[in-house]
Design a protein that fits this description.
The structure holds 3 protein chains of 3 kinds. By secondary structure, chain A is mainly α. In chain A, about 35% of the residues lie in helices and about 5% in strands. Chain A has a two-stranded antiparallel sheet with strand order 1-2. In chain B, strand 12, helix 5 and strand 13 form a beta-alpha-beta unit. Chain B is elongated, with a radius of gyration of 31 Å. Classes of the chains: A mainly alpha, B alpha+beta, C alpha/beta. The structure holds magnesium ion and zinc ion. The site of magnesium ion has 2 residues of chain B, from loops.
């Protein structure tokens, strides 16, 4: 599997919304690269026809009855919000559909 | 020197596929018990799951599955016995976890279809898939900042994805109408577009007629009314035709429809290409649809609107327009079916009286069929009186008025008012003799060829009988009496 | 024996009998924490008010003849990965500094219902990502047996607190060994239950398909008692198993007669410290002496547990941690626009190890990479599970070292991969969803605890508890305590 380029690091960091200082990105390039190297062992394993194990214990999804439970009070819901305007959470302007 | 759109359309064929999100009418959210209520105070309908608080976990709402299955069955989709929830990652303030719980490569429904009623014919549009997902909250953009209200976050949605088989803005709009009609008919959503309960994205492309490869498509987002769908798609088709006409190439892009400006603008494309990093949600085991559940769904399913549309025309001989009007609303169709149940042979007449007199009266006092003071049986009875000649159509309208207002049975009113039609021949002869005897001059000039006087004699007879004489009988008895 | 080292059972019995007042016990413990934890650093927060109130309530109930619960008056601490209503919960991360949850985790409700006194929150590696607790954003936690050495991790604060007598037991979380490894390093018992045995509701998610909550205690029976209190079905966790919880503490002392204990050769081939190896061999012999049937088994895919784990865990973590964005709660950095807000808040809020794992996970989940990485790892995971299913046709549980070495010095592991290699023996248990326990089985020549690991069949915690009790009796630490505590 390929070693990481700095460009890839920057792309992944952007996808993950992580700001990395230049030296951090530099270190990341080597450390993450080294971690990816440990994965090469997997490629060699024959897994044809093996179902991926998504859950540690096989089970079907349990269904909840459509019954209304309590909601948090607005105060509780927004207690941790760093920036509010009344009962609304405030973030820097979003250009509609910019994501 | 650009050519008119009409000419370009001779050469180019528009191809449209729709992705429609419909909110399901449940009491609680898709993955938690917090309530759903339109217009509640901001951020008042949340809980740890809705807010995506650390440690919160999703628990799936059974009702969501039941409602989605109704749509799946109604569209004759393949229902997946084991479907899966996946996480779709993108950072956005209205998306509390910064991933959306949706379905990816193992959706609940696939390969269904939706039938559109295009003026006289029915067009079958294939559906790629119908999958379950959670709605996001609401951002409002106010100058330098945006406000986030998470009440809507977690409301259950079905996303209905059509194959690119629509070939005009009209068809696109009709697809929306048909889906809107169907989800309301199935009682799985109010689909109120003003409330954002039904929202549409359109994929639009054009290709040279006869070409089977699809052209480069643009995605139109945020088109939230039937009118906008038609307007936005028309606008986009024209835009693309102009580009190719002036030798340009269509760019693959997402465009945002601005209903106010009546135009679309390309969305600011971010420097990074989005990668949703789908993977099966480890918090949610596979969603299994068992026979018992399917059984309940099948039992609860009403006859589908397009089926009735056909039945009304073939079995009752209704006009296509009347049939379409009746199936546009489950209540109206229900009223109609109850009425004809008591008088099947009068389907056509009942449809006329219902659509003109009854709807007219209801509109006048701002009621809908559900609130009609006149029962289906009463309407059928009234139509019966007219059809068997007990009363004339003209009198019938009066009787309808009174019965509608007072609730008194039509037959009773007819009795009380003594307005039965006179169809008794001897009685009519007597009256006619009297009338002709009383007007010898007119009788002579009629005989001399003054045809216009025939109406005069009919009028006299009607006058004698306060309009109750059977008009058909009156005119042929008069002819006999007057000699021609 | 001093009150601080009483077992859970002892404490509960003494409070129930009125021999001691819960309030007095708690006040004494709080004083001890104030004194000893300055050095140790096991606690991120101590809930003095809440603890004293709860203790007083237990005493009131007892006086009124009301039931006080099986853990009535027992002081228990919580790894800071567990959400506590109104009590700051950080997961060891700056990004959650100061966040006060509006709800209690399921296990916390259960503990309160059982009469336990919640003492406070224990330090841990940030979001459970680490094996030494050096990755905590807030403080270092020392190993009570040697202040220059790590307590292990990520539940290092919990293990240190239990070993140093700063609580009767603590709840940890275990995603790849985070309960068992620090328990081994600190000379206490760490039990990771079957996946789904304990509700994850209110457990700050690291890797959802691997995370489990479990007890860290000074004896195997204590661990069993605490597990009994927190285990059981919870409708709020869709992966919670709806199965009855047997009286584990009672069953734990049944002995090992006819218990088939497998020795997987793959776990003894790699580099293992000689003293650790010898101690584990001794434990195996003890089991044989006490009537267990020792059988050789093979778990062929063992060497793949490390790469599979370090793909699955970061992938799920990168998804679970995307919610920390500075919008609804937690740290928000100054920013010019939305993208900037996300990147700077997360850049400033997460530590280096968390960032690394988010990067690895994001890398592996990208379209076009998914099949070769995440999917492949989940397929290999299925093979690892298959190995265990096969082995369990020949035995009731398997025995291995918990760690290749005893506790190491701070800063000893210089690269991430080096650090990861310390987990090789504990990862497979989580990948396969099995119950696992680490039990002290002696001290090294440097007076450092050694742990032996037992792994059992899904929902069969009994087998490993039975073996654990026997090992504890014969080669456990007895009443040898870390010096100075
Ligand atoms: Mg879509
Ligand atoms: Zn969607």
């Amino acid at each position: 599997m390929p070693a990481l380029t700095r460009k890839e690091i920057d792309e992944i960091a952007l996808l993950a919304r992580l700001h990395l200082e230049p030296d951090e990105a530099e270190r990341m390039q080597h450390e993450v690269g080294a971690i990816l190297d440990t994965f090469t062992a997997l490629a060699a394993v024959d897994t044809d026809g093996i179902a991926p194990m998504t859950h540690a214990v096989p089970m079907d999804l349990r269904l909840r009855e459509d019954v209304v439970g309590p909601s948090l009070s607005v105060a509780e819901a927004l207690a941790g919000a760093p920036k509010r305007d009344g009962d609304l959470i405030v973030v820097p302007a979003i250009i509609p559909g910019s994501e | 020197m650009t050519r008119p759109i009409a000419d370009l359309l001779e050469e180019w064929e528009p191809v449209i596929g729709l992705e429609v999100h419909v909110q399901l009418a449940t009491a609680s959210k898709a993955f938690s018990a917090s309530a759903i209520q339109f217009g509640a105070p901001p951020n008042s309908l949340t809980d740890p799951v809705v807010l995506g608080l650390p440690g919160s976990l999703p628990v799936f709402n059974k009702r969501v599955l039941e409602l989605a299955l109704r749509l799946g069955v109604a569209t004759e989709s393949k229902i997946r016995a084991r479907s899966r929830f996946a996480r779709k990652h993108y950072f956005y303030p209205d998306q509390p976890k910064n991933y959306q719980i949706t379905q990816f490569d193992e959706p609940l429904c696939e390969a269904g279809h939706l039938d559109l009623i295009l003026d006289k014919r029915i067009k079958r549009v294939n559906l790629t898939r119908i999958h379950l997902e959670e709605d996001a909250g609401k951002n409002t953009h106010v100058g330098a900042v945006s406000h986030v209200d998470l009440n809507r976050a977690g409301i259950p949605l079905v996303e209905v994805v059509s194959e690119p088989e629509l070939t005009s803005a009209e068809e696109a709009a009709e697809f929306m109408r048909a889906l809107h009609r169907l989800v309301r008919w199935l009682d799985i959503s109010e689909a109120d577009m003003e409330k954002g309960q039904m929202r549409c994205d359109a994929n639009v492309s054009i290709r040279l007629r006869g070409e089977d490869r699809l052209g480069t498509r643009t995605e139109l987002k945020n088109i939230n009314s039937f009118r906008f769908v038609q307007h936005a798609v028309d606008h986009e088709i024209a835009r693309q035709l102009r580009i190719v006409d002036s030798g340009g190439r269509i760019e693959r892009e997402t465009r945002l429809w601005d209903a106010v400006a009546g135009q679309s603008a390309t969305m600011r494309t971010k420097e990074e290409a989005n990668d949703y990093r789908y993977f099966p949600d480890p918090d949610l085991p596979p969603l299994v649809v068992d026979g018992a559940l399917m059984g309940n769904v099948l039992k609860s399913l009403p006859e589908l609107p397009t089926k009735r549309f056909v039945r009304y025309q073939t079995e009752l001989g209704l006009a296509a327009d009347d049939a379409r009007t009746i199936i546009s609303d489950l209540e109206l169709a229900g009223f109609f079916d109850k009425a004809i149940a008591t008088r099947a042979k009068s389907g056509k007449a009942i449809a006329n009286w219902m659509l003109t007199e009854l709807l007219g009266a209801l509109n006048a006092d701002g009621k809908d069929v559900g609130q009609s003071p006149m029962s289906p049986a009463t309407l059928a009875a009234l139509v019966g009186l007219v059809e068997d000649g007990t009363i004339s159509g003209k009198i019938g309208k009066e009787i309808f008025e009174e019965s509608y207002r007072t609730g008194e049975a039509p037959a009773a009113i007819v009795e009380r008012r003594g307005v039965q039609q006179i169809s008794d021949e001897p009685a009519l002869w007597e009256i006619i003799d009297r009338v002709v005897g009383a007007n010898p001059k007119q009788a002579e000039s009629y005989a001399a060829g003054k045809d216009s006087l025939f109406g005069f004699f009919v009028g006299q007879v009607m006058k004698e009988t306060q309009g109750r004489a059977n008009p058909v009988m009156v005119s042929d008895l008069l002819r006999k009496r007057l000699g021609r | 024996m001093a009150a601080e080292y009483w077992s859970v059972a002892e404490t509960a019995q003494k409070v129930a009998s009125g021999e001691i007042k819960a309030a007095n016990l708690v006040i004494a413990l709080l004083a001890r924490i104030a004194d000893k934890d300055r050095e140790l650093g096991a606690y991120l927060a101590v809930d003095e008010e809440g603890a004293i109130e709860a203790a007083a309530e237990i005493d009131r109930k007892r006086a009124a003849g009301e039931p006080i619960g099986p853990l009535g008056g027992v002081p228990i601490a919580l790894k800071d990965m567990l959400v506590t209503k109104g009590l700051a919960t950080t997961a060891g991360s700056r990004i959650l500094a100061g966040w006060k949850p509006p709800y209690d985790a399921h296990v916390v409700e259960k503990l309160r219902a059982a009469g336990a006194i919640i003492v406070g929150k224990n330090n841990c590696d940030e979001f459970g990502m680490g094996s030494s607790t050096e990755r905590s954003a807030f403080q270092m936690t020392r190993n009570p047996w040697d202040a220059m050495r790590v307590p292990g991790g990520s539940s290092g604060g919990s293990s240190a607190a239990v070993a140093a007598g700063l609580c009767a037991a603590s709840l940890g979380t275990d995603t790849g060994g985070s309960i068992r490894q620090p328990a081994a390093f600190c000379g206490v018992v760490g039990l990771k239950p079957t996946y789904g045995r304990v509700s994850r509701y209110g457990v700050v998610a690291f890797a959802s398909s691997l995370d489990q909550v479990g007890p860290i205690a000074r004896t195997v029976t204590d661990a069993a008692l605490v597990l009994e209190a927190i285990a059981g079905f919870d409708a709020r966790d869709a992966t919670s198993i709806d199965a009855p919880v047997p009286p584990l503490a009672a069953l734990a002392t049944a002995g090992v007669k006819n218990l088939r204990v497998g020795v997987p050769k793959e776990y003894f081939e790699g580099a293992i410290d000689a003293e650790v190896r010898a101690a584990v061999d001794r434990a195996i012999e003890v089991l044989r002496d006490k009537g267990a049937e020792i059988v050789n088994v093979s778990l062929p895919h063992t060497s793949l547990a490390l790469p599979a784990y370090y793909l699955v865990a970061p992938a799920e973590a990168s998804s679970n941690l995307s919610r920390y964005d500075g919008v609804r709660y937690g740290l928000r950095a100054e920013a010019t626009d939305l993208l900037d807000l996300y990147r700077r808040s997360r850049g400033a809020g997460f530590g280096p190890e968390v960032k690394r794992r988010i990067m690895v996970g994001t890398y592996a989940l990208r379209s076009g990479y998914y099949d070769a990485y995440y999917k492949k790892a989940q397929q290999v995971r299925a093979l690892i599970k298959r190995d265990f299913d096969e082995a369990f046709t020949k035995c009731d549980c398997v025995i291995t070292p918990t760690t290749p070495t005893a506790a190491y010095r701070f800063g000893a592991k210089t690269t991430p991969v080096e650090m990861y290699l310390g987990d090789i023996f504990t990862l497979a248990c989580n990948l396969a969803g099995l119950p696992g326990i680490s039990v002290p089985c002696g001290l090294t020549s440097e007076n450092l605890p050694i742990g032996v690991q037992l792994m059992g069949k899904p929902l069969d915690e009994q087998a490993i508890l039975r073996a654990g009790v026997v090992i504890e009796k014969t080669c456990g630490l007895g009443d040898r305590r870390p010096g100075g505590f």
